[in-house]
Amino acid sequence: MQDEVKQRIESAIPNAQVQVEIEGNRASIAVVSTHFDGMSRVKKQQEVYGCIEDLIASGALHAVTIKAATP
Predict the structure, then answer these.
(1) What DSSP letter does each residue of 1-64 carry, written as one string?
(2) In the chain, N or C: fewer CB atoms in 10 Å?
(3) Residues 59-68: pLDDT tens digits?
(4) Quick check: 19 and 29 in contact, CB under 8 A?
């Protein structure tokens, strides 16, 4: 699932550098992209959540920590 999450984010967010760590149903995601320039912290996280919301809704992922930043 780690590769799937990474691929989804890289496909949806331009020029994204993505790191994903998954333990059980908990995920830690770090994304760096110029796409986030000028966005609030909440908006950046919403962009990433949008890539995996179905996995959260299904219970495949339960706890998700997101760090999203610009280079």
Answers:
(1) -HHHHHHHHHHHSTT-EEEEEEETTEEEEEEE-GGGTT--HHHHHHHHHHHHHHHHHHTS--EE
(2) C
(3) 999 999 999 9
(4) yes
How many CB atoms within 10 Å of residue 41? Answer: 12
Q: Residue 35 in contact with residue 16, Cβ under 8 Å?
A: yes
- Both tokens assigned to 35: 């796409």
20-61 pLDDT tens trace: 999 999 999 999 999 999 999 999 999 999 999 999 999 999
Contacts of 11-18 with C-beta under 8 Å, sequence gap 24+, read: 11/51, 12/47, 12/50, 12/51, 13/47, 13/48, 13/51, 17/71
